[in-house]
Amino acid sequence: MSVAECGPAVARTAFPPVPARRRSPGPVKAVVVIAPLSLTIVLGLWGIRRKNTMWGDESVTYQLAHRDLSQIWLTAQQIDLVHALYYAVMHEIFHLFGGGLLTLRLPSVLAMSVAATGVGLLGLRLAGPRAGLLAGLVFPLLPQVQKYAQEGRSYAMVCALVTWATYALVVSVPHRARWWRWALYGSTMLLACLLHEFAVLALVAHGVTLVVSRVPRPVLRAWSVTAAGVVAGLLPLAIRSAGQSGQVSWIGGPVRLRYFLVVAVMGVACARAPLGVRGPVRLSALAVPILALPGLLLLIVSLVKPLFVDRYVLYSNIGIALLLGAWMDYFHRRQRSSRTAWIAAVAVLAALVPPSLSLRTPQSRSNDVTAVGAAVRKEGRPGDGLLYLSGQYRAFTAASPEDTRFLTDLALAQDAVSSNTLAGVELPAQDIAARMLAFDRIVVVRGPAGAQSPTTPQEEAKTSTLRRYFREYGTTHVNGARVTVYVQGHDPSPKAGAGSDGPGASGGMAVSRGRLSMSARAGRAGGVPAVTSSSPRWVPPAEAVSA
User: Fold this and answer.
1) Which 3 state secondary structure label does DSSP give 291?
2) Using alpha carbons only, what angle is made at residue 242 by residues 460 and 303, rounded to the nearest 5 degrees?
3) Rounded Cα gap, residues 159 and 148, in angstroms
4) Which helix (H) or strand (E) holds 389?
5) Which of 222, 377, 215 is nearest to 285 (CA)?
6) What is the pLDDT of residues 29-61, one digit of tens each?
7) Beta strand spans in 186-326 (E)
8) Residue 387: its H or E element
9) What DSSP string describes 5-59?
């Protein structure tokens, strides 16, 4: 649809006057589309492997996308239902193109590229070619956009869908009677919401935009019907996933709030300038609500239950990109010389270099499961025991089974795939303690210093047994986790595996071993799973099991 179909433009009275919007020639529109698309792809491919590392959330995507669709569905009934559609999409992508690290992240690069073109076209429609081009180029330069364009999660796809739903809304306003335009808007918004529920907050922002723009009542009525359909389509997922609210229990307060506050203030400041052309929907009336409102609503809800995480409202970057692009266009028109504009542009680009470099390092994420697996592989010896404090950290090594193939998972009763979970099902507390004492050397994967573990009987049994019968031999600190080797007794250089015959197996430890062997026989008679090996095995005495 051409730009001119939105109706005649009305120039603002502020100095300098904004020229009336004219029909954009084809080449100009092509530039507005191709330039942001190309820049986003280039930035997305730059350092996309992040030194061949992966962080925890990406690891979950990697693992679940390798399961078949029925397993994804069954797992989603227990956890991560809000991401089930995304896992299904990634499963098909893995099936077509292979399940490597590039395949994990390339869909996000492409999705963010599509979002950038949408931002450019929005700017073109609302404020002219130069503003559209600048907005489209600003969008992929934003640090948050660069970060999630290279991440194997759903947020880039959600951002792209919300961008194009917003474009469909702007196009639909002058054509209130054309139901298919509203159907396109509604279906795009619903798909975004099914990929991530908090995309529904963009729907609220769209409603505020229409009210502020004072669109005719038939337009409001059409939007209301469409919005009701989107909410109705999302409602079953929202109700079902509410039972999995424990997934966000890790959010203790607003996560990376500073970025949101900074861009919100910048956006409001830009909106005070005479931006764009007055029409059915003004640029500032569209950009400010989608920039600020979703985040503010999450912050309000967080007063009751903490829910604010910056990536949940990643699409708010649409607003700041539009406002910055339109403001730069306004600034350029005010300056008789472009020298100042060029100096400002170079300064901004120079300021973006350090965060852009940092985002492409493993340390830019809250953890590094590749480093965890490497540390386990380095510290573990064939036959060692392996323990996770807590069990949720099992997902950190599940993406690379080769790192733990020679170790024995002491707490695992059923693996993650067969149990349709993310971290598997663990043994009862007394069985975990019994298996721990059957090993002279245990590699423990746990959170960073200060991280809190769940107070379940299994976790209490792990920590109590380690404290009573083992000592710390050495710890490797990696991003987001610690890998610690524990040994029984006082052997300074214990041999690997259970029932080691090294120095630690003599003296006082020999007495303990004989006492525990009798308990082991009693435990097996009572149904406690035995650990099979050629070396003697034992279970703890009654007082250790009850810890």
Assistant:
1) helix
2) 85
3) 10
4) strand 385-389
5) 215
6) 999 999 999 999 999 999 999 999 999 999 999
7) none
8) strand 385-389
9) GG---B--SSSSPPPPP-PPPHHHHHHHHHHHHHHHHHHHHTTTTTTT---HHHH
Q: What angle do CA 142, 147, 148 make, to 5 degrees?
A: 105
Rounded CA separation 414/404 (Å) = 16
Q: What are phi and psi of 416, to 5 degrees?
A: -65, -40
Nearest alpha-carbon partner for 178 in 311, 5, 52: 5
Query: Cα(369)–Cα(352) distance, rounded to whole angstroms?
Result: 27
Strands in 441-446's sheet, in edge-to-edge order, are 408-409, 385-389, 441-446, 481-488, 470-478
Tokens read off for 188: 């795009």
Q: How many CB atoms lie within 10 A of CB 1?
A: 10
* Mean pLDDT of the 328-343 span: 76
Listed in order, strand segments (DSSP E) in 390-504 are 408-409, 412-414, 425-426, 441-446, 470-478, 481-488
The rounded Cα 75 to chain-centroid distance in angstroms is: 18
Residue with tokens 């703890």: 540
d(CA 386, CA 384): 7
pLDDT digits (tens, 9 = 90+) for 267-285: 999 998 887 665 688 999 9
Q: Which residue has the tokens 């020999």?
A: 510
370-399: average pLDDT: 94
Given this model, what pLDDT does residue 6 score? 44
543 versus 127: the higher-pLDDT residue is: 127
Q: Report the C-alpha gap between 414 and 418 in whole angstroms.
A: 7
- Written as one string, the DSSP assignment of 457-476 is HHHHHHHHHHHHHEEEEEEE
Q: Distance between CA atoms of 16 and 65, rounded to whole angstroms?
A: 54
Predicted TM-score (pTM) of this structure: 0.83
Measure the CA–CA gap between 48 and 102, rounded to whole angstroms.
8
Number of residues assigned to the chain: 547
pLDDT at 502: 37
Q: Is the pLDDT of residue 453 over 90?
A: no
Opening angle at CA 274, ends 117 and 15, nearest 5:
130
CA distance 113 to 119: 10
Long-range contacts of range 522-529, CB-CB < 8 Å, 24 or more positions apart? Answer: 523/434, 528/430, 528/431, 528/434, 529/427, 529/431, 529/434, 529/435
- Evaluate if residue 185 carries a pLDDT over 80: yes
User: CA 161, CA 191: separation in Å to the nearest integer?
Assistant: 7
> How many CB atoms lie under 10 A from the CB of residue 277?
23
For the stretch 113-146, pLDDT in tens is 999 999 999 999 999 999 999 999 999 999 999 9
Token readout for 143 is 């640090």
Contacts of 198 by beta carbon, 8 Å cutoff, 6+ apart: 294, 298, 312, 313
Environment class of 22 (CB within 10 Å of its CB; exposed 0-12, middle 13-18, buried 19+): exposed
Distance CA 521, CA 509 (A): 18
Give rounded-to-5 percent helix, strand, coil for the chain: 65, 5, 30
